[in-house]
Specification:
The protein is mostly beta strands and 569 residues long. The protein has 3 helices and 37 strands. Strands 28, 29, 30, 31, 32, 33, 34, 35, 36 and 37 form a 10-stranded antiparallel β-sheet that branches. Strands 9, 11, 12, 13 and 15 form a 5-stranded antiparallel β-sheet that branches. A hairpin with a 2-residue loop joins strand 11 and strand 12. It is globular, with a radius of gyration of 27 Å. The termini are far apart.
């Protein structure tokens, strides 16, 4: 028996002789090397995941080959030039054939009125609301037949201007993450019911001093096919006001108009680097948010000397959540990373994060910002930007030194956009050569004003921009930001005069987690743009007056069939 055991043991030992185990060790080494190479190689390109029903999340352009498509634009007035918030709609068509648009303007009283305009192939047209139906307040539906369009609202007034996309869908609940009712500030909600059935809404607020649900704003009636503008007077004297608007039946469209007249208090901060910004003056008109999201991405965030840059967050859910704010740069490899900022928000509450207060942010920075809920609780997120007065203002051409300079209007601007499209802060044509440069010593000199814009809850492979300002007195920049871990190639096409042409100078590669400002020197200032990428990016537009006042920041509209989810961190 002992002999048999020894024999078996001897046979087992012979199986693991060097002749047998050396090849095994070599195989293990090869596998280990392959694993190391895989882990140290460039990360693979992320697969884009398509988003269903993106029009319920944000304003979007038309689908391919539409029979018709509709947009809803409110948040302005229709009384005449020089009014506080004169409303126009800008319709751009990316197709190689013309389209027909019906613009219907609604007021607080009386029946809506409609007018039909032709939108040229690879071109755009602007329609003033007051030319269709004059009134104290105005909202418009724009229905486009044929072509492939996008629609933006333009709001002009003595306090500034706004250019931002119109809503592409109605909803039963809307959210406004930012607002203010302090002295010198006016917050108004445009409640637009374009449908044949009346409805009623409940409005509640989350403020820096707690929640408020005014009895007068419960069951507020919104008649069929009408606009109702609510001036927020309760809560009053609140520095931070967020709103929730819910219908009892049906759907509506909600836009927010926030203005500052310069008579209020300075905007102050509380952090170690906090500096007071003088009493703001400006206007912002933009759609509310129809749906909260767990991720929001801002492609163009600017820290301005003498101004303030803030992030407004609203948690409309029933559970507390934490939101992590992550900052990116043009080329992240060249900058020292900034640690994420974590904000805790109770259920139904709001929070305001002032980046200007924080020592790691310096004047002149141009960044991306990502706001992500660390739980499954969706939030609303907006960027709020106050730009202070210039160090030196150009002398006015004539008259009152404090007066705004308003250009003469053409007799009819319902033509493809060779019209200047001028906001009320632009220069008279005879004085445009005197406009100061928007650059000074290598740093951008921004106009005084106020702007607010929502982040993007999605990325897209293709974006449509109806315009960028229309003359030398409004400067604009278009930024493409890449939220993914791999570099992305971007191309640009210009639509002007019935032609679609590529812009070779704007062909760029956007680094992973980076951003690029497009070079559009060779394009017509009045043209529309299509920005396309290999995978999902986010496109933003920032505008400021080179004389007078006015700033505006917003997103382009994505083509809905190209919309994809934001990649996770």
């Amino acid at each position: 028996m002992a002999r048999r055991r020894a024999g078996r043991h001897a046979r087992v030992t012979r199986r693991f002789t060097p002749r047998r185990w050396l090849p095994f060790l070599m195989l293990v080494a090869v596998i280990g090397a392959a694993v190391y190479v895989t882990e140290t190689a460039e990360p693979p390109v992320l697969r884009d995941v398509a988003v269903t029903s993106p029009e319920t999340m944000m304003p979007v352009a038309a689908v391919p080959r539409p029979v018709s498509s509709t947009w809803f634009c409110a948040g302005g007035s229709a009384l005449g030039a020089g009014e506080r918030a004169d409303l126009s709609v800008v319709i751009a068509n990316s197709a190689d054939r013309g389209a027909t648009a019906t613009v219907t303007v609604f007021g607080e009283e009386g029946r809506p009125r409609a007018e039909t305009v032709e939108v040229p192939a690879a071109g755009r047209v602007r329609v003033r609301a007051r030319d269709v139906h004059a009134g104290k307040w105005a909202a418009a539906t724009v229905e486009v037949f044929g072509g492939r369009a996008t629609v933006e609202r333009q709001v002009d007034g003595p306090d500034g201007f706004e250019l931002s996309p119109c809503s592409a869908a109605a909803a039963s609940t809307w959210y406004v993450p930012s607002g203010s009712t302090v002295r010198g500030a006016l917050m108004q909600l445009a409640l637009f019911n374009p449908f044949p059935d009346p409805t009623a809404v409940d409005i509640s607020f989350a403020t820096n001093e707690g929640p408020i649900a005014p009895r007068a704003l419960r069951g507020l009636a919104i008649p069929a096919r009408s606009l109702r503008v609510v001036t927020v007077e309760n809560p009053s004297r609140r520095a931070e006001v967020a709103a929730r608007i819910s219908t009892r039946t049906g759907r509506i469209v909600v836009d927010r108009l926030q203005t500052y007249d310069g008579s209020g208090d300075a905007v102050t901060g509380s952090g170690p680097a906090a500096l007071a910004t003088e009493a703001p003056r400006g206007l912002a008109s933009a759609p509310a948010l129809a749906k909260p999201a767990t991720r929001w991405f801002f492609p163009d965030v600017r820290i301005v000397d003498g101004g303030r840059t803030q992030v407004a967050l609203l948690n409309p859910g029933r559970e507390r959540t934490q939101v992590e704010l992550t900052v990116g740069f043009d080329d992240p490899r060249r900058y020292q990373p900034i640690a994420p900022i974590t904000v805790t928000i109770d259920a139904g509450d709001q929070a305001l994060v002032d980046l200007t207060d924080r020592v790691e942010f310096m004047g002149g920075m141009e960044l991306t910002l990502r706001a992500e809920s660390t739980t499954d609780v969706g939030v609303g997120a907006e960027l709020v930007w106050f730009s202070g007065e210039r160090d030196s203002q150009p002398e006015p051409t004539e008259g009152d030194p404090d007066a705004e300079v308003v250009p003469e209007e053409p007799d009819d601007d319902r033509v493809p956009e060779q019209d200047p499209d001028a906001p009320t802060t632009t220069l008279d044509p005879d004085t445009r050569d005197e406009a100061p440069s928007s650059q000074s010593g290598g740093f951008t000199v921004y106009a005084p004003g106020f702007a607010v814009t929502a982040g993007s809850p999605v990325a897209s492979r293709s974006w449509f921009l109806a315009g960028r300002g229309a003359n030398e007195a409004v400067t604009s920049q278009v930024v493409v930001a890449n939220p993914s871990e791999v570099a992305v190639s971007v191309k640009v096409r210009e639509l002007v005069g019935g032609r679609s042409r590529s812009v070779p100078g704007a062909t760029v590669t956007v680094p992973a987690r980076g951003r690029v400002t497009l070079d559009l020197e060779d394009t017509d200032p009045g043209s529309a743009l299509i920005i396309s990428a290999e995978s999902g990016v986010v496109v933003g537009r920032t505008q400021w007056a080179t004389t007078g006042r006015g700033i505006s920041t917003d997103l382009a509209t994505p083509f809905p069939d190209q919309v994809v989810t934001l990649p996770p961190l």
